[in-house]
Amino acid sequence: LRLDEKVRVVVFKSEVKGVFCAGADLKERAKMDDAEVGHFVRRLRNLMDEIAALPVPTIAAIDGYALGGGLELALACDLRVAASSAKMGLIETTRGLLPGAGGTQRLPRCVGIGLAKELIFTGRQIDGQEAFSMGLVNHTVPQNDEGDAAYQRALALAKEILPQAPFAVKMGKLAINRGMEVDIASGMAIEGMCYAQNIPTRDRQEGMAAFREKRPPQFTGK
């Protein structure tokens, strides 16, 4: 996906009704020795990092349970949409563990340190409305009879992104992600570098031309 220039947005959804991702299989984990567990978690953390590093916007469509590593998967995405009935939580402490695939780092960056500590320390599960109220998800929607309300809302959100200039969106994501890890002066420099890469693009010229000619722009990602 990272190398496919035709991809504009990636939506993560489940094919299992009522479950987005239930996290690690603890029965499988119980059969592993300590070294195998460490290797498993490192691979999982690397996978989440790869998802977070995708250059295009990513949306998690949470139509059911997103627990442990399942919520860490959603946190690795740029945007999250949840059904009001969805259940989310970093429940690792209830099993004698702690989040190991990015949860301790991405949750506080998403909802703030205090809320993240509370959710991780208690292992509490919250529904879609609670997740929305604390900023964990961008949108919450009532679940439908098909059980895919979050996916349908995620598609609508993706369709809002699709018409925009692809390279500009990629640079915007890069500037935000890199800028959030540094002081604001360094972040401004990162924004400047991303902007400089966008200036010579055909899409920028097309955007200006479309504005002058009072027509919708036709972006190509070039």
From TrEMBL:
GO CC annotation: mitochondrion
GO MF annotation list: enoyl-CoA hydratase activity
GO biological process, one term: fatty acid beta-oxidation
Gene3D superfamilies the record matches: 2-enoyl-CoA Hydratase, Chain A, domain 1, Lyase 2-enoyl-coa Hydratase, Chain A, domain 2
Residue ranges of the TM segments: none
Entries under InterPro entries matching the protein: ClpP/crotonase-like_dom_sf (IPR029045), Enoyl-CoA_hyd/isom_CS (IPR018376), Enoyl-CoA_hydra/iso (IPR001753), Enoyl-CoA_hydra_C (IPR014748)
Keyword terms, alphabetized: Lyase
PANTHER family, sorted: ENOYL-COA HYDRATASE DOMAIN-CONTAINING PROTEIN 2, MITOCHONDRIAL, ENOYL-COA HYDRATASE-RELATED
Family statement drawn from the similarity comment of this UniProt entry: Belongs to the enoyl-CoA hydratase/isomerase family.
Name of this chain's protein: ECHD2 protein
Organism: Urocolius indicus
